[in-house]
Amino acid sequence: MKFHYPNGKKYIPAKRETVRTKQEKKWSYSNRGMTLEEDINETNEYYLTNGIASIHKKPTPVQIVQVDYPKRSAAVIKEAYFKQASTTDYNGIYKGRYIDFEAKETQNLTSFPLKNFHDHQIKHMETILHHDGICFVLLRFSASEEIFLLEAKHLLMFWKRMIDGGRKSISKEEIENHGHSIPLGYNPRIDYINKIDYLYYLE
Amino acid sequence: MKFHYPNGKKYIPAKRETVRTKQEKKWSYSNRGMTLEEDINETNEYYLTNGIASIHKKPTPVQIVQVDYPKRSAAVIKEAYFKQASTTDYNGIYKGRYIDFEAKETQNLTSFPLKNFHDHQIKHMETILHHDGICFVLLRFSASEEIFLLEAKHLLMFWKRMIDGGRKSISKEEIENHGHSIPLGYNPRIDYINKIDYLYYLE
């Protein structure tokens, strides 16, 4: 049975950390069975351990209602509900600059539906740009395994077009024209910092 | 019954938002019944709504084990556990700069115990300084209701003294000498951005 977040996103439980053998670590573009979130988390871990950047995923916001305190063992949350996040999922620091982004994927082949984003996230991105932060989205077309970095200023433009009565999605051609394709790599998997260097002259 | 986080901090459930009357909003230094977290959240809301800064508390990290999906109502988390956070609690952006801090309080009168902090938080603060972020702690002496901003570089110094066999706390005199007292205000309640302006010449 599928559960959906308040934001319509499927809930994927975080994997427990496991020690991998070299065999298991073998990398291929196809059928890796990795989610976009896992790829980004591994990328951020690479940036962190190599002293490149400190960027983290925020925990899933949960409203805790009831907690049990069994003797001699850890507290157990017995009733809680998913809450809508008021910001994007990822933020942190790179070369002194504030970095903020959201990651989304679609099964669509030719366009990216804007319903993947929500008013409060759009508002948050506007705020970050107002404060001179580096803000963008990572968009993944799952069928073709293509990943694009699209700066928030462009996403906001397409969002405004929708609000003004225009199309409810960004065509893939528009994403190719305004965004920046990120090839899937081994380590780091999704090297978005490389694009940030290029876009913000941070090299 | 008291529950403690993995970090030894008491768990305080987030209050539901309530509409307050003017009477209730009346402000006094004593017996306000506000927690440090609530004061900081209201301060951050003030900064956000006034376009000053965008700084948020990260959600409590929770490992979700079991979720129920009742028909026609919201998903209920039935089993989950508190996880140790890998970063500090608050981060965001101010005038393009990355801001990162942790807030702690003590009942002690004459010193601030370093056991309020944990290895991973200290390591995170070192990382943030390495990347040229603005990093500090807000320390509250609950009995006297005094609040100090202590820059991470000083906290790290006192932490190192402990690791090297020195005292396991920071004396209040040291905090007064190296830190910056923040008077409790009405709106914003804990105006730490004012100190940041002063310390980092951002005015």
Walk me through what this model shows.
Chains A, B: Its cofactor is Mg(2+). Chains A, B: Pfam families: RecU. Chains A, B: It is an enzyme of class 3 (hydrolase). Chains A, B: Mg(2+) binds at residues 87, 89, 102, 121. Chains A, B: Its main location: cytoplasm. Chain A is of the alpha+beta class. Chain A has a domain at 39-58 and 87-199: Trna Endonuclease, Chain: A, domain 1. Helix content of chain A is 28%, strand content 27%. Chain A is built from six helices and ten strands; from the N terminus they run ααββββββαββαβαβα. Chain A has helices at residues 22-25, 36-49, 119-130, 152-163, 172-178, 192-199; strands at 54-57, 62-68, 76-82, 90-94, 97-106, 111-113, 134-141, 146-151, 169-171, 180-181. In chain A, the strands form three sheets. Chain A has a six-stranded mixed β-sheet with strand order 1-4-5-7-8-10, with helices on both faces. A two-stranded antiparallel ribbon of chain A has the order 2-3. Mean pLDDT of chain A is 88; it is low at 15-31. The interface between A and B is large, with 51 and 51 residues.
Oligomeric state of the chains present here: homodimer
Helix content of chain A: 25-40%
Most extensive interface: pair and counts?
Answer: A-B, 51 and 51 residues
Instruction: Please report the first level of CATH classification, the CATH class of the domain at 39-58 and 87-199 in chain A.
Output: Alpha Beta
Q: Shape of chain A, please?
A: globular
Main-sheet strand order of chain A equals 1-4-5-7-8-10
Q: Would you tell me the structural class of the helices and strands of chain A?
A: alpha+beta
